[in-house]
Amino acid sequence: MKQGIILAIASSFTFSIMNVFVKAASETIPVSEIVFFRSVIGALIIFLLMKRSNVSFSKNGIPMLVLRGTFGALYLIAYFFTIAHIPLGDASILAHLSPFFAIILSSLFLKEKMSKEMYLLFPFFIVGAVLLINPFSYNSFSVYALIGILSAFLAACASTSIRFLSATHHKYEIVFYFLAAGTIVSIPLMWNEFVIPSFTEWFYLICIGVVSLVGQIFLTSAFTHENIIVVEVVRYIGIFFNVMWGFIFWGEGLSVFSITGGALIIAASIILSKQKSQPVSIKRAAV
Rounded mean pLDDT of 155-162? Predict the structure, then answer.
């Protein structure tokens, strides 16, 4: 199996677990505070991992690292903001527009193109995603929806910058800049609404920080092994994981469409993962 595909699926599954804790914590903890603890806990852990693995901070490419961190932090805030103001299902529809932006950005800046196998399997991913999120029931057309679209664009920008940096920088350093940026950006936002967490809330926040860090490492690693378009499209499987957790923990509906859509994405991901791996190369456009 192709390692990049496996890592992309692993990241989606891990982030879906994080979403369970985020949903539980957001009932009493402000979104900005969740972003802060998600970022600061992960930043401390990744810093220790860097020290343990003797990974030093680069002296080159700092502007791009900062840009990657900023894109990631702004995406996180925009996505959580959207979730807080429109139905979760509608927010999910908007967030999963990112692969389309990623296709455009990776083509412009990385000169990456979809393989023949990806062209053949792409319709299965799209149909599966449509069945899972059921956009025909979308009912949140508002200014908040525009923020949701912005979050998808920022996610694609972050993914493109990760792929760009992966050829020259260690994955730990790339993740650290994202988490450090998230910590800095969230501080002023939570300044006037900070809530002292209870024991249970501390548990949720710590789990969010640790689990999201694992997911971020999986995702960053996926971009070092596989084309950005492939990784982004395979991550549609995360919709199925989220639907599954919603059914298990909150009794949210699990329709025939959801099961069929999830099966299509899983099957397409398995087929894609069995394709012969191609050498990873990145042709950067001038920036």
Answer: 90
pTM attached to this predicted model? 0.77
Reported confidence tier of residue 274, pLDDT bands at 50, 70, 90:
low
- The string of DSSP codes covering the chain is --HHHHHHHHHHHHHHHHHHHHHHHTTTS-HHHHHHHHHHHHHHHHHHHHHHTT-PPPSSSHHHHHHHHHHHHHHHHHHHHHHHHS-HHHHHHHHTTHHHHHHHHIIIII-----HHHHHHHHHHHHHHHHHH-GGG----SHHHHHHHHHHHHHHHHHHHHHHHTTTS-HHHHHHHHHHHHHHHHHHHHTTT-----HHHHHHHHHHHHHHHHHHHHHHHHHHHS-HHHHHHHTTHHHHHHHHHHHHHH-----HHHHHHHHHHHHHHHHHHTSPP------PPP-
Q: Give the alpha-carbon dihedral of 197, 202, 208, 211, to 10 degrees.
A: 170
- The answer to whether residue 286 sits within a structural domain is no
278 lies in some domain: no
Number of domains the chain contains? 1
The parent domain of residue 19 ranges over: 3-273
Determine the distance from the C-alpha atom of residue 228 to the mean position of all C-alpha atoms in its chain, rounded to a whole number. Answer: 12
Residue 131 lies in a domain: yes
